[in-house]
Design brief:
By secondary structure, this protein is an alpha/beta fold. It has 2 domains: about 120 residues, 3-Layer(aba) Sandwich (Rossmann fold), CATH 3.40.50.2300; about 100 residues, Orthogonal Bundle (Arc Repressor Mutant, subunit A), CATH 1.10.10. Helix content is about 40%, strand content about 20%. The chain is built from 8 helices and 12 strands. The chain starts with 10 loop residues before the first strand and ends with a strand.
Length: about 240
């Protein structure tokens, strides 16, 4: 297929094998002036994601050829593109797994188009702004020789570089600039995801879990994030 050349608008890849869903999403997204691409199966989704370089992917989990979880796993090997999963109401385990392997968020069917559009706008705003507010210094430092370069968007522990997704980078940034203070899950959702979130906050827990695992992989003592039971997370300054 021939891809649109105009990249002045954000490009969104919708992956779902239900025509009624893709028609509804495509109509509303195009009405909001987004460039929309559609894939009806996982194999086509992976090909389009590579060729079209979308700014956001709306990914249904129950799709043919390659299921949504495997699509997410494959994308996360080389891409930090934001992924919002679309799941059926009963797919509780799949939602948890999806978040743990790198999806940014999820919505359940039947979903509110207004809510989904709000999330799309918030995610794209975070991506366009790199999710950051300009700081007086472009270098942030944390415990255990953790070094975050805001300008280059890199994270180092000693001499080891850590590859983070945009969301993971933004979460670590928020925790570092509030070092020693507890940030609730709700506040992290508002600041890193970019919207007020009502209900399930497991997206935060899953993203923090991935972030901590990457820190530990770089150095066993590099995980400076502490879970505060019943509240949220903070940077452990010791």
């Amino acid at each position: 297929m021939t891809l649109p050349q105009d990249r002045s608008t954000c490009r969104i890849l919708v992956v779902d094998d239900e025509a009624a869903v893709t028609d509804l999403l495509a109509y509303n997204l195009r009405k909001a002036h987004y460039d929309v691409l559609i894939a009806a199966d996982g194999r086509a989704a992976l090909q389009l994601a590579q060729e079209a370089n979308p700014d956001l992917i709306l990914l249904d989990l129950m799709i043919p050829e390659v299921d949504g979880l495997d699509v997410c796993r494959e994308l996360r090997k080389s891409s930090s593109v934001p992924i919002i999963m679309i799941t059926a109401r009963g797919e509780e385990i799949d939602r948890v797994v999806g978040l743990e392997i790198g999806a940014d968020d999820y919505v359940t069917k039947p979903f509110s188009v207004r809510e989904l559009m709000a999330r799309v706008k918030a995610v794209l705003r975070r991506v366009q702004n790199d999710g950051l507010e300009k700081e007086p210094s472009t270098i942030l430092r944390g415990p255990g020789n953790l070094r975050m370069d805001m300008e280059r968007r890199t994270v180092m522990v000693r001499d080891t570089s850590i590859e983070l997704t945009r969301l993971e980078f933004d979460l670590l940034h928020r925790l570092l600039i509030n070092s020693g203070r507890v940030l609730t899950r709700e506040r992290l959702l508002e600041q890193a995801w970019g919207y007020n979130y009502i209900g399930d906050t497991r997206a935060v827990d899953s993203a923090i879990k991935r972030l901590r695992a990457k820190l530990r992989e770089a150095a066993p003592d590099a995980d400076c994030i502490e879970s505060v039971r019943g509240l949220g997370y903070k940077i452990n300054q010791t």
